[in-house]
Design brief:
Strand content: 15-25%
Number of domains: 1
Largest sheet: 3 strands, antiparallel
Helix content: 40-55%
Order of helices and strands: EHHEHHEHH
Strand order of the largest sheet: 1-3-2
Radius of gyration: 14 Å
Distance between the termini: 28 Å
Number of helices: 6
Shape: globular
Length: 107
């Protein structure tokens, strides 16, 4: 099965949401095949968000993801990337709260 990357960002980790997010992932029939808590460096964040380089959000995205430790999860499921995108829903938490009530992005 294909594996994809899921990140629990610093703010969610700091606020204690990681267990609920991981439980949601497993409830949706993903297998967590690897888990690591790490702190990204600015160059790592820039690589992660390279598709957003040059946009107004790039600096804020990099700053947010390097503001503390993250939990990186390798998750596995048939068509994992598409299934993960569907589960997390919209990137904007306010939109996620309205459109996808079970989205980890709404936490």
């Amino acid at each position: 099965m294909p594996v994809t990357l899921a990140l629990i960002k610093p703010e969610a980790l700091k606020n204690g949401y990681a267990p609920a997010i991981e439980a949601t992932i497993e409830a949706q029939k993903f297998s967590i095949v690897a888990r690591a808590q790490v702190t990204l460096t600015p160059p790592q964040a820039a690589e992660l968000y390279e598709e957003f380089a040059g946009t107004a959000l790039f600096a804020a995205m990099c700053a947010a993801v390097t503001s503390g430790p993250i939990v990186a999860l390798a998750i596995d499921k048939a068509d994992a990337q598409a299934a993960w995108s569907e589960l997390i829903g919209p990137a904007d938490p306010a939109v996620a709260r309205e459109e996808v009530r079970s989205s980890p992005a709404q936490l």
